[in-house]
Amino acid sequence: MISFFQLSSHQQLCHKDEYLALMQFKDSFVIERQASTRPKVDLWKSQGVDCCSWEGIWCDQNTSHVIGLDLSSSCLFGSINSSSSLFHLGHLQYLNLALNDFNSSKIPSAMGNLSRLTYLNLSSSFFSSQIPHEISKLSNLAKLDLSFNLDHSHQGLLELKRSDLKNLAQNLTKLEWLDLSYVGINSPIPKALANMSSLTHLHFGQCGLHGKFPIDIFQLPKLQVLDLDNNWELSGSFPEFHSHNQLRVVDVSNTTFSGELPISIGMLSSLEYLDVSSCNLSGWVPPSIGNLTKLHVLNLPNNSFKGENALFFSNLTQLTQINLRLNQFTFSEVPSSLASLTHLMKIDLSYNHISGHFPSWITNLTNLRQLNLGSNMLQGSLPSSISRLKNLETLYVCFNNLSGIVEFDTFLELKSLKLLALGFNNFSLVIKTPTNGTIPKFKILGLSFCNLREFPDFLRNQSELNVLSLGSNNIHGQIPSWILNLSASLWVLELSHNSFTSFEESFPVFPSSLLCLDLTSNFLKGSLPIPPCSSLFYLVSENMFSGEIPPQFCNMTSLQVLDLSHNNLSGTMLQCFGNLSSMSFLNLEGNNFHGPIPETWETTNQLRAIKMGQNNLHGRLPRSLSNCKTLEFLDLGKNKIKDIFPSWLGSLPELRVLILHSNRFYGTISIKVPETDFLFPRLHIIDLSDNGFVGTLPIDFFARWNAMADLDGENTTYLQAYKRQLMINNLVFPYVFPYSMTITNKGGKREYPKILEVFSAMDLSCNKFDGEIPEVVGNLKRLQLLNLSNNILVGPIPTPLGYLASLEALDLSQNMLTGRIPTQLTWLNFLEVFNVSHNHLTGPIPKGQQFDTFENSSFDGNSGLCGMPLSRKCDYYNSENLPPPSSISKRNEDSGLLAEFGWKLVLPGYGCGFLIGVVIGNVVFTRNHEWFLKTFRNRYP
Fold this sequence. Notes:
By secondary structure, the protein is mainly beta. The protein has seven helices and 62 strands. Strand 2 and strand 3 form a beta hairpin. The model is unreliable at about 1-10, about 745-750 and about 875-940 (pLDDT under 50).
């Protein structure tokens, strides 16, 4: 323990020079008095000339020298320089200046002259710049706290060089408490810290640490608190613990710690707080955690933990908070082992695979303040006994299978309830008008998909709302004016997927606080409503808005997501769109815009997705698009753009999807810049179909498209623009905008709202490419779709196509190909669609594997082909002489991705624009989520 001095009554006056130094130090600041704080220095004069009797001053009982100065929370404003009278207090051992405002000034280097200091606290005081290396000369320090020196946007102001951190660790050998939270260190942790054997508290929160955490620090003999949170690039793992460990707090949240929790974690008998949120941890949660009987907080969210049994929780009788959110727990019910934990105040089990009924025992946990069981598979009804939880502030049960009728009156007795989220279940919410009791003042209301048919009347008095979500109900007619003026602090208004036709007012006025407006998928007409300039998200797709985009949108400098897609908007696009530096997601597709694409795209932009397809845009592609260095997705399909192939887009380091189909591009596709190996380094989906390209296929590009060659079957996430998290009432609201693609199949438009990251496709159909298909295509082993149909290709089908192990669809129809169909194509175990019709192929159709499933139409228009499924037999052909079909990758017969999804529905009449027909995200997760994950992972063990 850090101890300090005991002081006797004052037998003699303090030293005059120290009295003068203290008065001069006080007078060097402006005292910014606050109603809630009384500055300690206010009473100094009235307390006489004996400074040893002043508030915040301690003196040595024998010498009367000032040895302690505590001016924390004293409303000091100003700065301290190295000539300050503070440094005349040469006997000072204790110095606390925390919670003042030193106006972003530097910590003076003369601080290192106070060589007797054992305690130094400069936290939360607006110090900035580099921490002076002289601090490491204070070899007697037992506590050093420089934490939370933040600017008004909560960014750290202080920095510490790597060499200074190492010197500090080597010189301050008596240090027991080190807190550098929010100090910009931006380097690895020196191993010398593992030698600081006196350390009891080590705080490195949000320091920009990276590299590997020295595992020996866990074994420091006196260490009680280890805080490493929010160092996103800091890796590490847990050691084997021993019974002599004294750890009480372990927080490695928001780091890249990986591996498993060791069984020996159960030996940390003093542990009270364990937080491993948002790491890369996995495996089973060891039952030995049940030995941690002093544990108050257990936070394991956003990892890959799994488990089926949670009996060990029943031993954690002191637990007040448990968070298992976003893991892979497969409990058959909400663990009943929690029922005896009567101290619980927060339970978060959301985003797992928990089934069973909503537990009635949970209403006995009367201390509960937050309950989050959302995004599981709970069934049955929501018990009315939930009203027994009088202290409940948060109830979140969205995205389950709860059913029945829920009476809104059930929640009226929960006077503390601030967040109520019931949406996306199968029950009907019944709201009586008028209600029979006093309604709580909500901050967040999530009532989407609750079978509402009108705006609940009780909302008229909800003047404190921050978030209102009424999407996916059956509300129709006008949007009333009062709903827009509910609260002066309304941040999110979500009214999507209803049947609204208009606003009550012709020019609706939104609250200036509004950050997100979502009116997606209604029947709204008229001009676009103008949101506040401070808006972050503006979503009005799939409506009937018309007219031009108002120029006021150019003033929305904070806008991050703008989705105006699939309306009847017209006119030209605003040139300012390329100058909105905060924009991440821009979707203008499916309107009637004409004219050129905005010409200027600034280098400062943060765009990740641009969608302008299905309009009437013309002209050339602006070369300034190459300034969009974060761009991942570019869709300009189905316009009238006339240009050569934009090889200059190959310099974009993040571009993954390029869709230019159905335009007027022309010429050959070749490298127009000095040769480089980094053209389109991450591109794995390209659609150039239905244009006027000529010449041979672009072999130079094929050889460089490494993202199409690298297999990465482990990643089953979707391509998406993930931009913002809103923190409201300590709950995080992530806004995720998945990338989508649209194609025309058999004359009809089909949209695929999600794209798997592992999906790779190339569609060059309906152009005028000639020459042979280059063998280098066989290197693109990640390809799942290849469409070269409707060109003028000649020569044989290259045998290396048999090495495209992931290929599910191959269309070479409507060309002038000759020779035999290579038997190597029978190696393609996942080939579900194959079309070589209308060529000049000859010889027998290969037998075995997927080829036994193809119909006549796959081979029509090749008079020289014979064998099944054609009626034309090969009399001269002896199938026994063929080499046996083999597989370059043994996989389960049932694991082909596309067999499950009804190819006849997706691909009839495939031809130009066939590319996106095999993007299965829109089918997979709505029809058979579990089957998909299982079989898709089996493909890439």
